[in-house]
Model the fold of this input.
Amino acid sequence: MTTKNLQVATIGGGCFWCTEAVFQEVKGVEKVVSGYSGGNVPGKPTYREICSGLSGYAEVVQVTFDANLISYEDILIIFMTTHDPTTLNIQGADRGTQYRSVIYYHDALQKEIAEIVSKEISPYYENPIVTEISPITEFFEAEKEHQDYYKSNQGQGYCSFVIAPKLAKLRKLHADKLK
Done:
């Protein structure tokens, strides 16, 4: 029996519903939790505070993965190719600092890998990558209704028109990494 090597990645690429749905399909991912990080409001932030764009928090997901099955580098490559890392505070129709592209690293090695992946992937984009790379401070789990959002709401318009195309892109670019 092989022992799992569980690690955590904290990333934000626009609406957390999209990022959550993407990583729920990736082989080696044990858990994906939508939440908030990087802000400056005292106490636990609420979705309403996040949506105001004034809290400083980003919508993020914490991805718990088995590093024996998928590397942190692969997690970041999937992340950087399933959202637009070249738009500042914008992902599609979602606009505001809460939708920024961000990698919150948990240690020096994660920071180094994030910087390498960002540099290596940049030639594939016409515009410069603006993904923030910062240390994780706090992570607050989002409200229950934001967890497993796509799985629970596939017929909803946002899921059909925004999330489904991201999943199609994931399946096309990273078929070998899917469950």
The chain is about 35% helix and 25% strand. The two ends are 20 Å apart (CA to CA). The chain has a mean pLDDT of 95.
